[in-house]
Amino acid sequence: MQQRLRGPRRAPAAVLEPTVTGRPSAAAVLLGVDPSLRGTGYGVIQTNRGGPRWLAHGVVRCPAGWDRSRCLLEIATVLRAVVQAQRPTVCVIESLFYAQNYQTALIMGEARGACLVAVAEAGLTVYELAPRRVKQAIVGYGAAQKEAVARMVQRRLGLAEPPPGDAADALALALAYAQEQGRYVLSVPKRI
Amino acid sequence: MQQRLRGPRRAPAAVLEPTVTGRPSAAAVLLGVDPSLRGTGYGVIQTNRGGPRWLAHGVVRCPAGWDRSRCLLEIATVLRAVVQAQRPTVCVIESLFYAQNYQTALIMGEARGACLVAVAEAGLTVYELAPRRVKQAIVGYGAAQKEAVARMVQRRLGLAEPPPGDAADALALALAYAQEQGRYVLSVPKRI
């Protein structure tokens, strides 16, 4: 309701502080990460008053023949290089919403651990967002298909073509986080 | 049966190659790691013909108030320092055997991921062993209590007192791995 009453770009009323605090300034660089052992997606955007600006995206591919420890090292190494090149101050990571079994959750956790070490050692503040919430923010529908997310990310960032699925999810995480900045939201992204 | 026929220190018969291959030489340095977000245990031993020799052990404590990303960074930082000081070539990590729920498995996975990045970047080969198998090897009983493991680790390594539980588990992992070297075992530790 409050959402509907405010225009999308109207500044929040001065009498109320936004519930979302401790956020980066308007021109912050955000790194979105969608962790997975064989295909971790990452995306970097800059938040501006005129709208978000694309900086980088990619997918860390680890062939099925690689040992798990080698994959995790590759994930951390690539993310370190991205952080060094783009200098983000905030990392937004996807939270787990579903796992087929404990083994899947464990492996997903390992990939997350590798990502978190790489970004934490560079001093980034880390927040997590559930995929459903990201889809809701970007596509307007919590159960949106991957393609719909990729197309909307392409449109929002003015890209020539839709990014690969995992990178699109990562960019969507950063976009969803940026979108919630300064807004009145019921639940703030969880800092981890 | 084969186990019973051979004396514990008798060399394996020359006609058969041990099923456990790709292992370090007799004087290798092994790092055992028992990962957990708030209390990762580690232990370093040197394998010798005269029996294993203790080199180091400890627990990475992360207070409950710390962000998860901070804990993971602390785990990776401490393990890096241990690896640099002790120069192990093999890491033996505990595999998950039980988790209360997906969230527990995910957090355990994150701690494992932080450990694996730290040891993989130093070039260590990583193996995993199930806790049950470690207890069987060290205490002779797969469902042994933590205290029994700590006491047996103390005895085997000639320590003045039993190590703290998590560090004792880590030392037990390294000891169990060392014990299987050159033996005929039905299943080799899984390289990850």
General description of the model:
The structure is a homodimer. With about 190 residues, chain A is of the alpha/beta class. Chain A has a single domain (about 1-190), classed as Nucleotidyltransferase, domain 5. Chain A is built from six helices and six strands; from the N terminus they run αβββαβαβαααβ. The first copy, chain A, has helices at about 1-5, 70-85, 100-120, 130-140, 145-155, 165-180, and strands spanning about 30-35, 40-45, 55-60, 90-95, 125-130, 190. Chain A has a six-stranded mixed β-sheet with strand order 3-2-1-4-5-6. In chain A, helix 5 packs across helix 6. At the A-B interface, helix 2 and helix 3 of A face helix 2 and helix 3 of B.
Short description:
Chain A is 41% helix and 18% strand. The first copy, chain A, is built from 6 helices and 6 strands; from the N terminus they run αβββαβαβαααβ. The longest helix of chain A is centred in the middle third of the chain and has 19 residues, at 68-86.
